[in-house]
Fold:
Amino acid sequence: MGLEQHVRRKGFLKSKRSRIILATFVFIAILAVVIPPAVVVTLRKKNSMGPKSKVFVPLYVYPAPGTWDPLENAISTHPDVNFTVIINPGSGPGPNALPDGNYTREIPKLARYENVRLLGYVPTTYTKRNISLVRKDIETYAAWPTNSSNPDLAVRGIFFDETPQQYDAKALAYLQSLTSFVKKMPGLGPDNFVVHNPGVVPDSRYLASADSTVVFEATYDTFLERQGADLFRNIPDSNRSQLCAVIHSVPDNIEGPELRGLVKRVRRVADEIFITHLSTDYYSSFGNKWDQFVDLMAA
Ligand SMILES: *[C@@H]1O[C@H](CO)[C@@H](O)[C@H](O)[C@H]1NC(C)=O
Ligand SMILES: *[C@@H]1O[C@H](CO)[C@@H](O)[C@H](O)[C@H]1NC(C)=O
Ligand SMILES: *[C@@H]1O[C@H](CO)[C@@H](O)[C@H](O)[C@H]1NC(C)=O
Ligand SMILES: *[C@@H]1O[C@H](CO)[C@@H](O)[C@H](O)[C@H]1NC(C)=O
Ligand SMILES: *[C@@H]1O[C@H](CO)[C@@H](O)[C@H](O)[C@H]1NC(C)=O
Structure:
C-alpha cells in the first residue's frame, strides 16, 4: 500500500508538472502576441542608457533678464529629470543679506520646480578659509526666505568649493563641523544637502562627510587620459549615488551618437553630471549642445 501510494503520488506530480509546463508555453505564446513590439523596443531603449543621473549645473551666470531661460526651459520640459543647481551671487551669497533684484526675481522661479534642488556656493579654500566666515555665508543663505518674506527665495543645501584631496585630520574635522551646521539649519530644508568639490578623487575618508562629492572636474581630454569611467570604479568605500562628475571642453565633434556614448558612460558611475562643450568660462553660459545633453540625461 505504501508503494502504491508513492507511485500514484509520483504520477500526480508528473502530470501536474506537465500541466505547468504546458501552461507556461501557452502564457509565453499569448504574451508574444499581446505585447506590441513597440513596448519591447521602448523598454530596451530605456535600459540601454543605464541608470538615470541628475543634471548638475554650476550656474555661474548673472541673471540678467533671459539668461537663465535655457535652464528653466530644460527644467520645465524634462519633469522626469532632476536638476541640482549651484547658485553663486558673489563667490558666495554676496556681502548683503539678500542678493540683487535680478537674483531675487530669478531664484524663486527655479526653486518652485519639484525637480530642482538649489544649493548655495560657499568657498572653503581647501579648509584654510576662516570657518566663522564660512558659517556666516551659510547663515546668510539660510536666512534668505525669512529675510525676504519669500519662501521660494531659498536654497536646499550648500556646495562647498575647493575642498581638500589629501587627508588631514583637522581638515576633516572642519568639514564635518560644517556638515553638522548645514544639517541642522532650518532655512536650508527640507534637503539640507551637502556637496564637496575637491574636483579630483579625494582621500576616501572625506566622502562620508558629504552627500555628494565632485570627484572629477576637468576637460574631456583629461577624462580620456584617466581612462574615463574606470577612474570612478575604484574609489574605496563609495558608490555612484554619492559621486558627481563635471566634464568641460568637450570637442564639438562629440555629438549625436558619440555624445550619447559619453553620457551613458558617465551615468553608469556618477549620480550627478555636468557635460559642456564650452572650453572657456564653461559655467558662465550654456553651450550650443546644452539641449542635446539634457535630452540624453532624460533618455
Ligand atoms: C528625482 O527626485 C525625486 C524626488 O526627490 C526622487 O523621488 C527621484 O528618485 C529622483 N530621481 C533621480 C533619477 O534622481
Ligand atoms: C539686472 O541686470 C540688468 C542687466 O545686466 C542690469 O541692467 C540691472 O541693473 C540689474 N538689476 C539689478 C537690480 O541689479
Ligand atoms: C575669523 O573671523 C572671525 C569673525 O570675523 C574673527 O573674529 C576671527 O578673529 C577670525 N579668525 C582668524 C584666525 O582670522
Ligand atoms: C534682513 O537683513 C537685513 C540686514 O541684515 C536686516 O536689516 C533686516 O532687518 C532683515 N529683514 C528681515 C525681515 O529679517
Ligand atoms: C551608497 O552610499 C550612500 C551614501 O553613503 C549610502 O547611504 C548607501 O547605503 C550606499 N549604497 C550602497 C549600495 O552601498
